[in-house]
Amino acid sequence: MSKALYWFTHDLRLNDNTALEALLNRHDEVAFMFVINSDWFKPTNYFQKSMGVHRWQFLKGSLKNLHSQLSNHGHRLILKWGNPVTEIMDFVEQHKVTHIVTSVQFGFYEQKEIESVKAQLPSVTVNSYCTSTLFSEEQIVTEQTPLQSFSAFRKYVEKQNFAVRKLSSKDIALWPKSIDVQPVEHSDSVNHVLDKVERDLICDEPLAELQFLGGEQGALSHICDYFSSSAPLTYKKTRNELDGKYNSTKFSPYLAMGNVSPRYIWHELIKYEQSRCKNESTYWIGFELLWREYFQWLLKSRGKSFFRFQGVAKSKPLTSFYAHRFTQWCNGKTKYPLVNACINQLNATGYMSNRGRQIVASCLVNELGVDWRYGAAYFQQQLIDYDVASNWGNWQYIAGVGVDPQGGRHFNLSKQTQLYDKNGDFIKKWHGEYDDKHVYDLVDEADWPNI
Ligand SMILES: Cc1cc2nc3c(=O)[nH]c(=O)nc-3n(C[C@H](O)[C@H](O)[C@H](O)COP(=O)(O)OP(=O)(O)OC[C@H]3O[C@@H](n4cnc5c(N)ncnc54)[C@H](O)[C@@H]3O)c2cc1C
Q: Is the distance from the beta carbon of residue 297 to the nearest atom of ligand 1 less than 6 Å?
């Protein structure tokens, strides 16, 4: 008899989930677990936490929704917090689990966790499935795929005419029974664990109202609303705007949490093109999804170099670390109103437009001369849609240590303001003006050399 544990990670959904489908079709008894890693809330990564309050709230919504969906099938989500490897191993040993089913991890450290479980539990079979990409590992063999630039990858993918995999069936009529876990005590309930984490790890950081509702239901309803509108028809024209509900798709938080699969979105896009209209804008939505795809496979192939100062290009940028400038940037208190406005938007909502991200990243690297990894780590903490591959990949790109053949990006901040906030409405809305004569560097007179 096989007893399998589903280890949820960035795949918090039931639909179009190949790993879940394999679990339900192949095993006699099953259980579902998610582990909240307590390290996420410790400021270790360039003085930033891996998870800030906005993404925590979004994750919380996703977990509650997942638990309620599992309950509809007579199961529950076992929610733990601590060290994921330890928690998974404890459960497996205690309940004599024979198989672990999980998603393929693209992040370097996430891969290490799975390897560690495998090494410590050699008698348990661990099966991983690609659930967060358009293509599967059989379709994209990283050694044979041109990953030296996005264009090369895109042309390769388009030329090969890869079909994105057919959606896996979403309804399994009969779910296997639950592994006999002790009756749920109050201290084990999803709500109790979430409250405890909030009390012990997040303490008194204020939680803001989110514009996105975490979870599969929220994702599907947002995608349905988006594709019921005419917004996809003008996407290419509006995607660079700094604000607005439908100026861009806002699929990213749901994709990052795995509330929806990119393949589901891809198929919805094709349906839209077939039933309403296909134009350059609809093509561009697919084009951007390919950017996301590209960064996932690039990270898988380049591993740790995604986090190195010299990046995948192995070229050291001309930056250093200026604590004061970095703090001003994080607090939206630089001398650049557009940059401040974008950062204030991020700090208040957990979201910033793609154009905004490019502008503030370019400013940190070029105007302020700060090591790009501090910016990437700050985004990791603040973004509701943080995705390891897209975030570190894009930061490298801007800093000129990534795969961009042009070598970095320097945005002219006055020109960007003219182009995207001509009347100053965005700066006004997000309080970008900051008037302080000490705004650049705090250097004590005594620090200057005597001439
Ligand atoms: C410095 C920097 C850091 C970034 N960090 C992240 C991150 O942590 N998580 C994240 O999802 N995106 C990140 N991006 C990419 C992009 O900014 C967001 O995906 C986008 O703003 C999300 O809004 P949207 O869903 O409305 O995007 P849309 O413009 O509607 O695009 C549709 C989808 O395509 C994908 N996409 C679009 N642009 C990019 C891109 N440049 N790189 C990769 N995928 C893309 C996303 O999945 C997005 O949801 C970053 C960009 C920069 C410049």
A: no
